[in-house]
């Protein structure tokens, strides 16, 4: 089965080509270990075909559903971002994440991973509800269990040689 995120570039003329993708829950479900559960996103791809390379310029706008960092409840997060990826023909691997080397005999590219990476880069470092919107019961439970666990772990992990330093104040 051909992926809806695969673009056959062999028949394209040199120059600019526009593609639109609408991403939803099925996009994220098809990716193992996705950090996002659901979303409604529009991705615009401007693919420029040149003699020796393809330049893919992505722009994404929309909403994703991800767990809140404070209460772990699902929340909607507005995102907007862009990414440029260069596809070059060759045999050697590239260490640059924005440069993808494809075999010379290739006739199509799959842009799913590039779109997912762009979405992940567009997410804030910490997604959390606004103040007073979190599930307070869950916040209290998390605080209760993490504070007890942290103090027990700290007590258990103290090297006896350093334990005497605790009493120096």
Please, could you describe this protein's structure?
There is one protein chain. The protein is about 25% helix and about 35% strand. Strands 2-3-4-5-6 form a five-stranded mixed β-sheet. It has a two-stranded antiparallel ribbon with strand order 1-7. By secondary structure, it is α+β, with helices and mostly antiparallel strands. The protein has one domain (about 5-130). A hairpin with a 6-residue loop joins strand 4 (about 55-65) and strand 5. The chain contains four helices and seven strands. It has helices at about 25-30, 110-120, 135-155, 160-165, and strands at about 5-10, 15-25, 40-50, 55-65, 75-90, 100, 110.
Helices and strands in order, then pairings?
Elements: E1 6-8, E2 15-23, H1 25-29, E3 38-49, E4 53-67, E5 74-89, E6 99-102, E7 108-110, H2 112-122, H3 136-156, H4 160-163
Keywords:
single chain; 4 helices; alpha+beta; 5-stranded mixed β-sheet; two-stranded antiparallel sheet
Secondary structure tally: strands: 7
Helix % is: 10-25%
Query: How many domains make up the 3D coordinates?
Result: 1
Mean pLDDT: 85
């Amino acid at each position: 089965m051909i992926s809806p995120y695969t673009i056959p570039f062999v028949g394209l003329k040199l120059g600019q080509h526009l593609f639109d993708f609408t991403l939803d829950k099925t996009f994220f479900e098809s990716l193992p270990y996705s950090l996002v559960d659901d979303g409604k996103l529009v991705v615009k791809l401007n693919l420029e075909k040149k003699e020796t390379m393809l330049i893919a310029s992505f722009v994404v706008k929309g909403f994703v559903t991800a767990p809140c960092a404070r209460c772990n409840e699902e929340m909607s997060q507005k995102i907007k971002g862009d990414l440029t990826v260069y596809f070059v023909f060759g045999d050697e691997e590239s260490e640059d994440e924005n440069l993808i080397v494809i075999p010379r005999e290739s006739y199509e590219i799959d842009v799913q991973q590039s779109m997912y990476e762009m979405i992940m880069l567009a997410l804030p470092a910490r997604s959390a509800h606004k103040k007073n919107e979190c599930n307070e019961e869950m916040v209290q439970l998390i605080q209760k269990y993490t504070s007890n666990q942290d103090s027990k772990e700290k007590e258990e992990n103290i090297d006896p040689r350093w334990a005497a330093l605790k009493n120096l104040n």
